[in-house]
Specification:
Two copies of one chain form a homodimer.
Chain A (H helix, E strand, L loop, with lengths): L6 H9 L1 E3 L3 E3 L7 E2 L1 H14 L7 E5 L3 H12 L3 E6 L9 E8 L4 E8 L8 E9 L3 H13 L2 E11 L4 H7 L4 E10 L6 E3 L1
Parallel strand pairs in A: 4-5, 4-8, 8-9, 9-10
Antiparallel strand pairs in A: 1-2, 5-7, 6-7, 10-11
Helix pairs in contact in A: 2-3
């Protein structure tokens, strides 16, 4: 690889921990401790990459996408909502739902977005921290489709390029901008390479 | 009540929906759609109320506290971490855990914070969206205690003043600053009063 690594990739190399089962722990800056300066850079990067795209609203999914999406909301100046796990008692009667197979949790979760927050014809930017098999994105896409909203962009922090989610989402025709695409990672040596 | 309502209280009056079972839905600005300008005001308010208090780190709990805590992190200029549900496969071996009875979910959840992110002697500001029975806060306090960290302040957006959590936390001696304390709310009339 000849190009210079961006600051997210550098951070993954420095602090990411590769674990058995294709797991990449980035708890020190992305999904337990949250580095807001890094999120600022990520938001600016997506702002640049999606320049000229119509974006009315940012949509993410709990939990790790929320912090990132809030910072993107500041940079783009549009509202932000998140899909919630639908085990809540205070569910709206009027919700869109989708079943999401969590890669990390190894279980099925139903997520929901109130119908009040997704409108027909609205242009959505989906934001999430990780993309592996694409299940969370498929859930968000399903709810957007139910609402008749349009997904004009998808911003992912870390894509696991060796799993099928990225290809699948690109094949569906969505503009997908992953800020770091992990090409390979080895739990034995800890070595990580980027696309 | 003679005093002028603050902007969070005004927003609760305008958009909050009282439901059976002591539930208050504030999905339009706090815990599904997130109003970042409101979060900015909340962060500034806590910054003012906790002026002079030593704060090294902000700690919240997934999911609805995350967005608020990120904005507070920007305003206070200190790192932010969140306690995660401990059903994750990529758990660190070295974590603090606590069992939290969720009022909204009506079930017990184990949450965890990696030991790397809570240090002895560190001054913590706990942030969360709701305080009802205080179970989430008790979980965060337990993990802080396990680490030997000190809680110098607790910032809550909406406290249900008619439930016991606020009193319990104040009786434990923690400086608790709730930006809106709901004194009563009636699902039949929809009427909400503040302390």
């Amino acid at each position: 690889m000849n190009r210079e690594l961006n600051i997210l990739e550098q951070r993954i190399l420095k602090e990411g921990i590769v674990k058995e089962g294709n797991l990449l722990s980035v708890d020190t800056f992305l999904n337990q401790q949250m580095d807001i300066e890094l999120f600022d850079w990520m938001a600016e990067e997506w702002k640049h990459r999606f320049e000229g795209y119509p974006i009315d609203k940012i949509v993410t999914i709990e939990a790790s996408g929320i912090g990132i999406a809030c910072i993107v909301s500041i940079h783009l100046g549009v509202p932000v909502i998140f899909a919630k796990r639908a085990d809540h008692l205070n569910l709206d009667d009027e919700v869109y739902t989708a079943d999401v197979q969590s890669y990390t949790h190894k279980r099925m979760t139903t997520v929901m977005i109130s119908k009040r927050f997704l409108n027909e014809g609205e242009n959505l930017l989906l934001i999430d921290d990780f993309l592996a098999h694409g299940n969370a994105l498929k859930g968000l896409i399903s709810m957007a489709d139910q609402a008749g909203a349009k997904i004009t962009g998808i911003g992912i922090a870390v894509e696991k390029g060796f799993q099928e989610g990225g290809q699948l989402i690109r094949d569906m025709g969505y503009p997908l901008e992953s800020l770091a695409i992990v090409e390979s990672m080895d739990p034995a040596s800890g070595k990580i390479t980027f696309r």
